[in-house]
Structures are given as structure tokens and as C-alpha cells.
Amino acid sequence: MKRAVYPGSFDPITFGHLDILNRASRIFDEVTVLIMNNINKDYFFNWKERLSMAKEAIKKYSNVKAEMFDGLLVEYTRKNEITILVRGLRAVSDFEYELQMAHMNKAMCPNLETVFLMTDSKYSFISSTIVREVAKFGGDVSPWVPEYVVRAFKKKHG
User: What's 31-98 look like in SS3?
Assistant: First the structure.
């Protein structure tokens, strides 16, 4: 059984994330969307809100689950006997950071393989950061995120 983990902060989950998830779900027998905390980020949505959005996103998949984890990703993969890490790439600018992380993870966990999937070009400019900024100033984010994310923004902004 090929089990993979798709980690990220998903603050919020976007159509770009869902594109990667959709393809990963067809490649691997089981995929875990892993909501993580990054000590270098300030989050708009809290951990439970991000998990709730991820659970909404995965409803249509029989082989995908969503979980939270706070710690080193390699510890999660060891504990859960997962050997494949899925990461999405939008542009060349993402690659340098992702390559660094892949090498670091491999150094800490030699049996962990990182698989990079390129997002569909129509999503290549979307990032959670840009979506949050547009939402903060009252812009319409519905072209880039599912309706449940739009509702979550409206709930937060009042």
C-alpha cells in the first residue's frame, strides 16, 4: 500500500492545494492532508478552523484523511509508517525552498521520498497569503477558494 502525506499550513486551503490533492489521491492508495504549524508564520485561521476546512475538502475522497500535527514532519511519518511526502510546486521560486526541505527531511529520515507535483497553470499564481490579503481588504476570493472557505472568511471578518 502506498501511503503519502500532504503537509502544509493550509491557511486557507485553495484550489491550488485541491488540485495537488486530487492528483495525489489518484496516485497513492492513501493520502493524509496534514495540517501543521510553522513557527515562522502568523495564522489567520486557527488550527481547528484549518482542520475543519481540510475535512470539508476531503469529503469526496474515500482514500484521504485530514489530521493535525505539531512537530517535525519526519516524526509524524515515522510514527505513521509513511514513506512518501507530497509537495506542490507553483513556480520555479517554490522549488529552491522545497528542495532544501526535501534534502533536510531525507537527511533526518532516509526512507522518506518527496514527490513534487506541479499545480495546474491556472492555479500557479494562487497562494494562501495572497488570498488572505484580498479577503482582508474585502475582495472577492471565490475564484481561488471553495465556498466553505469564503464563508469562513466572512464569519471571521463579520
Answer: EEEEEECCCCCCCCCCHHHHHHHHHHHCCCCCCEEEEEECCCHHHHHHHCCCCEEEEEECCHHHHHHH
pTM for the whole structure = 0.94
- On whether residue 27 sits in a domain, the answer given is yes
Strand partners, 34: 7, 67
**Is 140 inside any structural domain?**
no
The shares of helix, strand and coil residues in the chain, as percent rounded to the nearest 5, are 45, 20, 35
Report the CATH number at residue 15. 3.40.50.620
For residue 58, what pLDDT is reported?
95
> Cα separation of 93 and 112, whole Å?
23
| Contact by Cβ (8 Å): 34, 67 | yes
- What is the domain range of residue 77? 3-125
**144 domain residue, yes or no:** no
Q: 3-state class of 28 per DSSP?
A: coil
Instruction: Reply yes or no on whether the pLDDT at 90 is more than 90.
Output: no
Whether 101 shows a pLDDT value over 80: the answer reads yes
For residue 158, the model assigns a pLDDT of 63
Enzyme catalytic residues: 17, 41, 90, 128
